[in-house]
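Dear colleague,

Thank you for sharing your sequence with our group. We've completed the structure prediction you requested, and as agreed, I am returning the results in plain text so they can be pasted directly into your records. Please verify that the sequence below matches your submission; if there's any discrepancy, let me know and we will rerun it promptly.
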Amino acid sequence: MIEFRNVSKVYDHNIRALAGVDFRVGKGEFVFVVGPSGAGKSTMLRMVYREELPSEGQVFVEGRDLARLRAASVPYLRRGIGVVFQDFKLLPSRTTFENVAFALEVTGARSYEIKRRTTQALELVGLRGRQRAYPHELSGGEQQRTSLARAVVNSPKILVADEPTGNLDPQTGRQLMQYLHNISLMGTTVLVATHARSIVDEFQCRVVRLERGRIVRDDQRAGYFGPLSACADGEEV
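Please find the predicted structure tokens below.
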């Protein structure tokens, strides 16, 4: 589903974000990407939806080399990839329903399909009763769940989330992570960059650790700092 082959990324002033990264993520996998600030986590995630391109190496999504993808094809790639941002990125003048529906409107979906799928997405994250509320009327957790509903409304094959619990209290953060985990159980590949050690330890899924742009650990059924007791495949936590 996702493959990095010897990927490096160097920004201006010789700032190296990634160095020789090799890893693969299969269909329906749930993967935590952890590491200190500046380790390259966000750069890695942005490469998946082609917000960044590698300086060296190759990034493949569903077998396509993203560096060779024509500019006109990028919007179609991104329709199959949901993105959850730490700062929500909601449109302040639109309701919860309208924020989620907008992701379908830009694809040219029919009005009845927009209504049906938006309602389903809001139900999935427990927000159907808040669909007429505006962002300033929502709690931080509700705003992040709106962002998640927007990310999944197109039924993406891949979902990436960059520090999705960073602005949330621990309980709300765990609830959001549970939604993400449940989405992976339905077949979506989920990649989450996070500093939330307690959540990573609790969910015990695959953990990829970055330090100074390099993968220093890639463990199945692990905690933030290393392998823990295993959870059964496909088991909800």
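Summary note from our side: Residues 91-155 form one domain.

Kind regards,
the structure core
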